[in-house]
Amino acid sequence: MLSWLSSSLLKSKIQNDPYYRFQSMAEIKIAADLGIQIDVNQAAVDDWLRFPGLSIHQAKTLTQMSEFGVQFLCIEDVAAALGLSVQRLKPLEPIMKFCYYDPESLHQIQRVNLNTATVNDLTQIPEIRSVLARAIVRNRQIRGEYKNLVDLQQRLSLPSEMIANLMHYLRF
Questions:
Q1: Residue 12 contacts by C-beta under 8 Å, 6 or more apart in sequence?
Q2: Which end of the chain has less Cβ packing within 10 Å, N or C?
């Protein structure tokens, strides 16, 4: 009775907590049986950290690669990116979802790194006109890199509505 109850609670926790970090390959199997999948090409650091055995450094590396346009099409791609053997990652594959996203698609927004973007790069973003783009670059040159959206908003006194619109196009 007790093991059934703990098994049921574990399944419920895995199914209902999107940030639950799997502790074992048995939990990966439970997640797969429940239909849980993580899209590796849209995974954030927190998503990668759900996999047992992946470090924060590895999670950040994979996330940054995706942000720079690298697409993982199979488990071998993820293994190569991490410098690991395919056999080491194979047990995690049942909950990995590999989808291809066309970089030219209108539905796939290419985010711009605010700390490396030129004035021309910034003017390609809706909401950013040349005056604002120059102010962003000038402020970055004088005061250093932007930490996040709040930092951008405070440094340039931008309205919240504009930040809400820009957050889909920027990364740091």
A1: none
A2: N
